[in-house]
Amino acid sequence: MFTVTLNQSGRQFTVDPDETVLEAAQRAGIALPYSCRAGVCGSCKATLVQGQCSYPRNPPLALAGTSPRQHAVLLCQAVPTSDLVIEAREVTSVEDIARRQLNVIVAEKRVLAPDVVGLVLQPADGEPRLNWLPGQYLDVLLDDGRRRPFSIASGPQASGAIEMHVRHVAGGGFTSWVNDSLKVGDTLRIEGPLGTFVPREDAERPIIFMAGGTGFAPVKAIVEHFLDLGTQRPMDVYWGARSVADLYLKEMARGWEMRAPLRFHPVISDAEQADGLRVGLVHEAVLDDHPDLSGHDVYMSGPPAMIDAGRKLFLGAGLPEDRLYYDSFEYAPDVLAQILAGRAGVIE
Ligand SMILES: Cc1cc2nc3c(=O)[nH]c(=O)nc-3n(C[C@H](O)[C@H](O)[C@H](O)COP(=O)(O)OP(=O)(O)OC[C@H]3O[C@@H](n4cnc5c(N)ncnc54)[C@H](O)[C@@H]3O)c2cc1C
Ligand code: FES
């Protein structure tokens, strides 16, 4: 058993054999950042100040291109082979909220866009309502033990309602079933809250939000949180999609402009389906409008390619890495593990 020390706070926890640093921190009630839990998104990247670790599960793909001199470590995959000292962002705001499993009933199902379904879930009879921070996600637990992660599109509600926006992925087992067969009144089992994509309120800097597709769900929850607080922080909300029809809540987002110093920027990638809206890639629109990001906080959520581009280009535009918060909508951890195992096989 090895001990991990967090350099900044001095907090310590022990790691069982074969356990990752992230799993051990969660067991100890310490929240370190993560999103995909599969080694590909880079949310959990930290600095290894002292000690050594191995990667017996998935290869640490998100460290590709990182110089060894940066001593970077991926907490969701790293298994210590000695005591460690690491420098990682601690997300203490999520630590007080217990994660638990519960049954929920589908209270509403409606078509939001050609391939997006909106769901409202309610705790089943006798289940206490779930608590979470805006921006967090939950896992839907499938009968065979697999999990499918989905962001919660609202803050916690007194009614217990949990809102989700589910995109139907081609060939996807769960999202096809949601699209074709799930009915109002059906029961799902979920676990949550999960994730560390949550509002940071320690500064008055202007904020840029960037969403791609259903990445709008957690961004909506976080923006609504800031609006409810009555924030005076300038906010720019960019939402990218292929066609106008995919911006399924754009009128609601336009309405936010009345409530705060907020500007909403819809961006369409397919020029033939733009219907007069701005055309291009959403991360390029952010950079065209804000070539210097050194004075901003940035929250982004959506498809891995958009997140990857944002990570590289926004840091290049002066954004400090510790002010970039994101959830990458990767496939579920079991699917990624299979894909990566296949790749590792090819490399060997
Ligand atoms: C933190 C987080 C939050 C998310 N939030 C949302 C959200 O709010 N809304 C949303 O719409 N999505 C969200 N996602 C993405 C969502 O979880 C996935 O779209 C979902 O898990 C797909 O499940 P599925 O069972 O339908 O697809 P799967 O059956 O898992 O398959 C997905 C795709 O991968 C392919 N595939 C499966 N196995 C393999 C393999 N071994 N090799 C190669 N390809 C394979 C399939 O053919 C299919 O095309 C989120 C993801 C994360 C990580
Ligand atoms: S790389 Fe570790 S959470 Fe995504």
From TrEMBL:
Q: Which GO terms describe its molecular function?
A: 2 iron, 2 sulfur cluster binding; oxidoreductase activity
Instruction: Identify the residues that the record assigns to the 2Fe-2S ferredoxin-type domain, covering every copy.
Output: 1-92
Residue stretches making up the FAD-binding FR-type domain: 99-200
**Family annotation (PANTHER family):** NADH OXIDOREDUCTASE HCR, PROTEIN RFBI
Protein name per the record: 2Fe-2S iron-sulfur cluster binding domain-containing protein
